[in-house]
Amino acid sequence: MTSFNRSTSRRLKKLTQIPSVWEGDRRPLSSSQTQNSDSEGKGECILWVDGSQGIVRGMDVVAPETGPEAIVRTLMRAMEHPHSPAKPARPQRIVVKDREIQFYLRGVLQDLDIAIDYVPELPLIDELFRGFADILDSQVPDLPPQYAQVLREKAFAIWQAAPWELLEEQQILSIEINKWDVGTLYASVMGMLGMEYGVLFYRSQESLKRFRASVLREDESQGHLEEAFLKQDCLFLTFESGDESDEDEDEFSDLADLPLSEIDPTFGNIHPLEGLRSVLYDEEALVVFVALESFCRFIRDYRRQLGSETFPTLSRRYRISLPESSNEPTKSVSVTVSSMPQLATELEEIAGFDALDDETESESIPIFRSLRDDLIPEDSFLSLGVVSWEMLEYLHKGAIYHQTGEITQAGDGLPVILIQTSRPKAKTVISNIEQAGGLKAICFNPGADPFDGKRYDLGLLQTENSELFLFGEFEDDDPIHVEAREKWNQRCKNTNGYCGLIIAKGLTGSSRGNPQLRDMMALFEARFLSPKDLGIGTLQLMPQLQFE
To answer: Which of 35, 315, 330, 392 is deepest in the core (most CB within 10 A)?
Structure first.
């Protein structure tokens, strides 16, 4: 059995010993209705209260598998750093209702002159836990219990239908319900960029347009963006990883790469007067159920048409059966789902995408399916530089070489992005680019973080299969990067828009940060695209819809 260090015992014995009896216990945190089924997921509560004064001196919540040492740690805090208004002290007597806890405390506290006794009841702690159970019983669940299962089933049906493979955020579907005081919802799909996945059901076109105009405005501050986010008027379904550790390890991991068992759907509501809440009430749950079911059917029926290059005009009426658990007098609802190409055009104009209609520019504007960050290893060395024309000739002969066209040899050399990593990782990067058909373009696109107000220059690689990969994030006002970008732009201008990507090994060797010719394993020549050519506007880091 673990015991206190002698110095700790001496320190605790210096505390004033008061003529009080303290109660201590450790119990599952659960409501009166879920004591057996749900206690493991909610943890256990450790309480130390002064029965003589009727105050809580210490409290902690621990995982059920935590050992008995936790109850001693909480007791030490109750003695040395108690909750206000209690003062540091040690009791003359401690009572518990668990024999194992009694014997454990007798062994640990034997040098502190504290009597440890067993009693069958702890009236003060019993009353506190009854209060905790009442609070848990009164909490509103995230979803009405009678609709929770069917809503989760519909959510997973949406996930498997993957509407973000077909629809961009501005390609809106209207869902006309005309029930529960809801007229028409306007569904906007998130996920084509591979960053966040979900469906937002706006209650009005005005709310949708206002929000998109706000987040795309170049001069918006962090406070204004957060305010715009909370002024939305919509119901939502979003998806996130069920494993919180995944988010800590990789902030930009793509949920689409995870198995269905690790996907966790979240429902909620945003309203200007309510803000963001992760709870759906009965009528809202029915509205979302009907919207999801009709939306899913529409995607299934028109998948081929929605996957075409143009956003077509489509409409279909469905009769949606309500869940059997519903107490509604009618058992079904007639719903009309329609595509809204005219609204999509308006939203593209708000975003500044009107240049897409210019046929002279359309060939240079890529069609992209996702923004990924899994191509370049995280620990790579990255630099913007230039390769002399003489060295370029050596690279043509000694490295894996992918040519894109006849390059005008003007200026001091070919502008290149150099990625240095370990040899195995370099081979993987080269293989992945080759499997994607090669490198098509290198781009720098503006990005913004509404939380801290920072603006970024995002380095992007576009492969021949039209995927975009993030290779670097640079602060927009970093003087070193600003100077490097100015040189990059001028060099690309000299070469008529040609540039290159060099993949090098030797990250852990003597040439780290300064790869030699022998370290350069591949050269991919490509075209340089400006943000206007890329045509995706400023990428905004949107708030994550996550809840406790």
So the answer is: 392
